[in-house]
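To close the section, here is one more complete example, presented without commentary so you can practise reading it yourself. The ligand is glutamic acid.
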Amino acid sequence: MANYIERVIEQVKAKNPGEVEFHQTVEEVLTSLAPVIEQHPEYEKMGLLERLTEPERGISFRVVWVDDNGNVQVNKGYRYEFNSAIGPYKGGLRFAPNVYPGIIKFLGFEQIFKNSLTGLPIGGGKGGSDFDPNGKSDAEVMRFCQAFMTELYRHIGPHTDVPAGDLGVGGREIGYLFGQYKRITNRFDGGVLTGKGIPYGGCLGRTEATGFGIVWYAEEMLKANGEEMKGKTVAISGFGNVSWGTAWKLQQLGAKLVTISGPDGYIYDPDGINTDEKLNMMLELRASGKNVCAPYAERFPNAKFVPGKKPWEVKADLYIPCATQNEVHMEDAKAIVESGAKFYCEGSNMPTTNEALAYLQDNGIIVGPAKAANAGGVACSCIEMGQNAGHTVFQHQDVYDQLHQIMINIHKACKEASEKYYGKYDLVKGANIAGFEKVAEAMMAQGLV
Ligand code: GLU
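Output:
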């Protein structure tokens, strides 16, 4: 069986040359599935892993728009519809200059397992563009989003594929995308996009859902190991939506958050990033469109800005990377181990290189994997789809209560799967297995499609 897994990993590498992020995630996931594949020889006969690693559909398209100076701009647009075995394709759109198929495929592949872990009926997909919203005017962002949707609308729908936000795509972009979808189709299909504004079908709590979910998941990790969140010193990276929701929930649970970061460096705030004013400052940083965190230290003089560095050199009890993929390398993992920390919970998608992940786990750090810990965002999106389908509105507290329970369930599923197949508490392996089992069963039931 190990041979089967190795063969599929090699095939994926050969079929998707140069797409290193996709190779990385396929290797990480498939390797942990070994004991399950062992028990199901029929999976090999039915080419299950070959099918799982090949997107059901991939769309690449040209996006043409005109900038404020009247120049024609051409970007690449993508949507990889990866797996619809348990529900319509679901996953975000990422707008960032480094976007290429390898990034969208890694995110789409991860999304299959993440969405399955939520326990909700959603398949996996991801899309995006190499467009960089930073430094663009509102009008430029609108024209770009309209041009992007003018192609994408053909491929999506409430029962087909439901995009949402990701890096570079927030409420503003979703608004423009939704407006254009409605204009072209003449349909108010609320459930075609999630992360919408509250007045037009958005779900209360969606903005903070990913961050809240991460902290609730981390809280379960702590509890399972006889500890509590209150009083813990926490270091996170990023300052966008996910970091902001994480900071807010950490504050509510009495932990002390001491760092945030941007591409320009990191902020160390020894007093804690724990007042409404400081949380609002994170929103201001994002709204500035400059993609820098340094101004935080100008506003709060006790805080220090450390240029060009990542926050992993700061001593903490719990680390939560919330910025982007591969932001924690081997040298960072070593610093985290040296700090004496016990817990590391991934917030952003695949923030840890495979090598760094293995080092953290080998050195006794308890790791919460992103596909489980950050599943609260997409879970809330599915709640939004339910709200739209039922032509209703859910109350804020109802959404929080559902979300909290979902995060508790995900932790339990990861824990039980790893104990069953590996005889130990390993949430990384457990998340892959628990996410896989349901999708595999559904794919087997649906035959060779
Ligand atoms: N982009 C988010 C993620 O990585 C959210 C996706 C969604 O809400 O569909 O899961």
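Once you have examined the tokens, check your reading against these statements. The pocket of glutamic acid is lined by residues 90-92, 114, 164, 166, 194, 349, 377-378, 381 (CB under 6 Å). The chain has a mean pLDDT of 97.
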